[in-house]
Write a structure and sequence with these properties.
heterodimer; A: 346 residues; alpha/beta; D-Maltodextrin-Binding Protein, domain 2; 11 helices; 10 strands; 44% helix; disordered N terminus; B: 508 residues; mainly alpha; two-stranded antiparallel sheet; 22 helices; 1% strand; globular; DUF112_TM (chain B); Transporter (chain B); Transporter (chain A); BUG (chain A); Bug_dom1 (chain A)
């Protein structure tokens, strides 16, 4: 009796394993077919193209990928079918590990990313062994900036007030952000602190799940200051609930934020761009690279794209492949310095 | 009076024929999304955003925004209705918020009361939907301010109360329930720690950076565990399971459920208002509460209708409550509401403190349409109960492969990695082994949900207070919650010491 039971279990296990294996084979199959035809030269693209958002549905990467696909399709800039694929896990690290090893020559798979591709590659904990150097950066399409925000009735009137308070007693100020230490919000928060010569390690940083929760903590008085995306504070500013002490832009932003000073204006030599861009595989064929450089440039100049950006509340900033790569090098340097100052560099 | 006239205007928007159609499409798709595991409400809403954008292309911006958000919100709360179906029929939770429904729902189905369970889930969802909407209309402003006051210390104490209440999920042995809770807490530490950014138990495997996916664990433990058990115990020819009794709940069913539905709706609504707490916790809490106050706590887990009515009302109540921080503060309390917010922003409607002033047609139209959508869902779901209940008549030899296929498909569709499929199988085996030895599975799942919240909020609170533990008793709300948690554990203990017979199990 006992024996038959275990046979049953074994059979069930085999069956489910077989099912799982089928799934695995299928995806492996599509991958290899993708990389094989990378050599089908001149009239690229000849097959459907996938743009990967290395996150679940609904995040910034996902929205960007979907917007790109939508406009490229509507304007007829790309005739082939394009689909968005979500590949969540490890803040993009799961996808990168697969892409940088198995899709090195796959001209038909691109992806969207932002500063985390650099940060995850440099930081010690939760490290992604692959970074932008394992890809071909094709173009930067949008930009956003970091903002240092306090509640409207906060005692900190200016960035200088805040920095002085931290200098005197780092334990007296609670800074919050929507992501883990060593990730983007934290880096934005410590940027002016680091640049004005205070040890960033002494700063009290509390991380929340997402910018929304961080904003709730600020409004509810559970945090003194938050670092977040400049684009997400407009509404709270209009409603008179918060005050923006500084933005990390090179010059003043438009719209509701036009009266908000930049860090540079305030005598803190700091800048941080939250960009979003499109990447291809490391060993992309020159035809494919040329095609995408041209197509993404056309996209960035197209009326429909500008409409889409306005709808989403994103700001346009186009850099071509070469400029983008150079910009990434600079940012890698900056992110590296910040992480080192926190003792979080790998 | 002001509110009422705004609401009437909202109904004018919502009752326009095209908006009625949008609401109907939304709840229809939502029901389907809820029934199918693998497409959760989050991906369902996200995938429909571009579709609604093209459907509403001909309307003026304000109207387009109202119409598409009516459709998308329909998907959101429609999914909460549908989520219970597979939990009850196949022991396979489609959404994390319906995990606890499996405990009694599946038992009811096995006893031939699938129809009653499904019907009460629909009725409970409807009542909770309406209750939470009334709450949304009347209490949005004051509650949003209370929710803001809920800081890390308060969250920590609330979660601790949840953990103390775990005795409510115990089966035969309290000790085993605590072992499972701790096991769940341990599993929840896997992944990148959100407070310090340190990787724990990941062994540089990038799949583990995000921790174990809750749904993978729950589906493995409950659905696959049950499948393995059926196979090994040769339940293949057991024809008795297959009978469906009556479709509609009896009068005594309704009477038994009235209390749980009312309490579940209110509890769900208030937990839903807190950003980050959400529908899953609400369903757990309401189940535990019902068991605690029930005259027959031993019936829970054996297929009592209150065990279905309470959590299903609570998760729907929570979805209504979650609209408050979203609409009044622009703070999404869950993944799905974050996507709804993204959709609103796409139409240049920014949820937040100014929403009701700047876009009253959108805000009130949405609220009014939710009233209508809930009625539609009830009408839509009651006839479907008959249809769905038939699934349970499928012979076991077809049903078991079906459950395996649905589980694997569902998990793969969400995670898109074979790693999670293997994890699912591992938890299936574990679930079988644990259930065989009378270890209750629900505390493990609850530990997994509560673990990160307890830990993160405790450390956030301590960081802010410079390591001073007094912060947890200095804040009044936090103190009250802690005292309740303490009493929850201590009172049955003392009563037992004084020789009274209480529901505490013998080997405690």
């Amino acid at each position: 009796m006992k024996k038959t039971k275990w046979w049953g279990l074994l059979a069930a296990g085999m069956m489910t394993l077989a099912l799982a294996a089928c799934g695995g084979n299928e995806s492996a199959g599509s991958k290899s077919s993708g990389s094989n035809s990378g050599s089908s030269a001149s009239n690229y693209p000849t097959k459907p193209i996938t743009i990967v958002a290395p996150s679940g549905a609904g995040g910034g990467w996902d929205l960007t990928a979907r917007a790109i696909v939508k406009v490229l399709d509507e304007t007829g800039l790309v005739k082939q079918t394009m689909t968005v694929e979500n590949k969540p896990g490890g803040g993009g690290a799961v996808f990168m590990a697969e892409y940088a090893t198995q899709d090195v020559k796959n001209d038909y798979k691109l992806f969207v990313n932002s500063p985390p591709i650099i940060i995850n590659n440099l930081k010690k904990e939760g490290n992604s062994p692959f970074g932008y150097k394992d890809t071909t950066p094709l173009a930067q399409l949008t930009k956003d900036f970091g903002a240092i925000v306090v509640k409207a009735d906060s005692k900190f009137q200016t960035l200088t007030d805040l920095l002085n308070a931290i200098k005197q007693n780092p334990k007296s100020v609670t800074i919050a952000g929507g992501s883990a230490p060593g990730s983007m919000d934290h880096l934005v928060a410590i940027l002016p602190i680091y640049k004005s010569g205070i040890d960033p390690k002494s700063v009290k940083y509390v991380s929340y799940d997402g910018g929304g929760e961080a904003m709730a903590a600020l409004l509810g008085g559970n945090a003194d200051v938050i670092a977040t995306d400049a684009s997400s504070v407009g509404e709270y500013l209009k409603a008179g609930k918060v005050r923006v002490l500084a933005v990390s832009a090179p010059e003043r932003l438009g719209g509701v934020l036009k009266d908000m000073p930049t860090m540079k204006e305030l005598g803190v030599d700091a800048e941080f761009t939250i960009w979003r861009g499109v990447f291809g595989p490391k060993e992309m064929s020159s035809e494919a690279k040329a095609f995408w450089e041209e197509t993404l440039k056309k996209l960035s100049e197209h009326e429909k794209w500008k409409e889409e950006l306005q709808k989403q509340g994103w700001e346009a900033e186009y850099r071509n492949s070469e400029e983008f790569t150079k910009f990434l090098q600079e940012q890698e340097q900056q992110v590296g310095d910040l992480l080192k100052s926190l003792g979080m560099h790998k | 009076m002001d509110t009422l006239s705004f609401l009437l205007e909202g109904f004018q928007t919502a009752l326009q024929p095209h908006n009625l159609l949008f609401a109907f499409i939304g709840v229809l798709i939502g029901t389907a999304v809820g029934v199918l595991p693998g497409i959760g409400p989050m991906s369902g809403v996200a995938l429909l955003i571009p579709v609604t954008a093209s459907m509403t292309a001909g309307l003026s911006p304000e109207q387009a925004a109202a119409s598409s958000i009516i459709l998308l919100a329909g998907v959101y709360y429609g999914a909460m209705y549908g989520g219970s179906t597979t939990s009850i029929l196949l022991n396979t939770p489609g959404e994390s918020s319906s995990v606890v429904t499996t405990l009694d729902g599946y038992q009811m189905a096995r006893q031939g009361r699938a129809g009653a369970a499904l019907a009460i889930a629909a009725i409970g969802s409807f009542v909770a939907g309406i209750v939470s909407l009334i709450g949304l209309v009347l209490l949005a402003e004051p509650l949003s301010n209370v929710a803001l006051k809920f800081g890390p210390a308060e969250y920590f104490s609330l979660m601790l109360l949840g953990l103390a209440a775990v005795s409510g999920l115990a089966g035969k042995s309290m000790t085993k329930a605590w072992i499972m809770t701790v096991f769940g807490l341990l599993l929840s530490t896997i992944g990148l720690d959100n407070v310090s950014g340190v990787a724990r138990f990941t062994y540089n495997i990038s799949y583990l950076y995000g921790g174990l996916e809750f749904l993978t664990v729950a589906v493995g433990l409950f659905a696959l565990g049950e499948v393995f058990k059926s196979i090994l115990h040769n339940e293949m020819n057991d024809g008795d399971i297959a009978k469906i009794g009556r479709i509609l709940p009896t009068k005594s069913d309704l009477k038994e459920s009235a209390g749980p539905i009312a309490r579940g709706s209110l509890l769900g609504f208030f937990i839903g208002v807190l950003p980050g707490a959400g529908a899953t916790l609400a369903s757990f809490f309401s189940y535990i509460l019902e068991k605690k106050i029930s005259k027959h706590p031993e019936k829970f887990g054996q297929g009592t209708i209150a065990g279905v009515a309470a959590p299903e009302s609570a998760n729907n109540g929570a979805s209504g409550g979650a609209m408050i921080p979203l609409l009044t503060l622009g703070i999404p309390g869950s993944g799905t509401t974050a996507i709804l917010m993204g959709a609103l922003i796409m139409y240049n409607v920014q949820p937040g403190p100014l929403l009701f002033d700047e876009h009253p047609a959108v805000a009130w139209g949405l609220i009014a349409s939710m009233f209508i959508g809930n009625v539609m869902l009830l009408i839509l779901n009651m006839p479907l109960v008959k249809l769905f209940a038939k699934i349970i008549q499928t012979p076991t030899k077809y049903l078991l492969p079906l459950i395996i296929a649905i589980s694997i498909f569902g998990v793969y569709a969400v995670q898109v990695t074979t790693f999670d499929v293997f994890l699912l199988l591992a938890f299936g085996l574990l679930g079988y082994w644990l259930a065989e030895h009378d270890y209750p599975l629900a505390p493990l799942v609850l530990g997994l949900v509560l673990g990160p919240m307890i830990e993160n909020n405790m450390r956030r609170a301590l960081t802010a207070s410079n390591g001073d533990y007094l912060v947890f008793v200095e804040k009044p709300i936090s103190l009250v919650l802690l005292v309740i948690a303490l009493l929850w554990i201590a009172v049955p203990f003392f009563m037992k010491l004084r020789g009274k017979t209480v529901i505490v199990n013998e080997d405690m």
